[in-house]
Amino acid sequence: MASSASRFIKCVTVGDGAVGKTCMLICYTSNKFPTDYVPTVFDNFSANVVVDGTTVNLGLWDTAGQEDYNRLRPLSYRGADAFVLAFSLVSRASYENIMKKWLPELQHHAPSVPIVLVGTKYDLREDKQYLLDHPGVVPVTTAQGRNSASTSAQPVTSNAAQRHSRMSKLCLMLPSR
């Protein structure tokens, strides 16, 4: 196994605010599940992953999903090898924004960059207490997520934050630089 990365992949994470983008990246890079929500403006994470005997440095760029950052966010897209488009499985609005907002934005600024669709908060989708406490929530089904993925992106199994090992599978789908 090589001691230093022989390949670099820039992966930019996008999606509505509060869908779990930062949580997913923190879990993946530190094996810790954050308990406090702090809105992100921009942040960077890094992880070395071994894929087929090659060490890959995965540069994970975390972006703000809030509308206030619509003009600033695309500056992080330059040089991206892939996008992770995240939506919450317990937020119908974030799911609908895949087609309304995020795909048009990514296709406008980086039309040839592959997109991986990730559904977050899988644990809440089936949490009876959460659903009782949030009576308006209509969870996004697996079939709906797969349908969006088939028309827009590469699907990845949901809840990447708590089952962070699946994030490593992204490296297998991403092009080399």
Automatic annotation (TrEMBL):
Feature: compositional bias, Polar residues: 142-162
Family matches, as InterPro entries: P-loop_NTPase, Small_GTP-bd, Small_GTPase, Small_GTPase_Rho
GO molecular function: GTP binding; GTPase activity
UniProt GO cellular component terms: membrane
CDD domains referenced in this protein's UniProt entry, alphabetically: Rop_like
Swiss-Prot/TrEMBL keywords: GTP-binding, Lipoprotein, Nucleotide-binding
SUPFAM superfamilies named among the record's database cross-references: P-loop containing nucleoside triphosphate hydrolases
Record PROSITE patterns: RAB, RAS, RHO
Keyword GTP-binding among record annotations: yes
Annotated region described as Disordered, given as residue ranges: 142-166
Membrane topology reported for the UniProt record: Peripheral membrane protein
GO biological process entries: small GTPase-mediated signal transduction
Keyword flag Nucleotide-binding: yes
UniProt feature coiled coil, ranges: none
Protein's cellular compartments: Membrane
The organism's place on the tree of life at top rank: Eukaryota
SMART domains registered for this protein in UniProt: RAB, RAS, RHO
Family (UniProt): Belongs to the small GTPase superfamily. Rho family.
NCBIfam families xrefs: small_GTP
Protein name according to UniProt: Uncharacterized protein
Organism this protein belongs to: Triticum turgidum subsp. durum
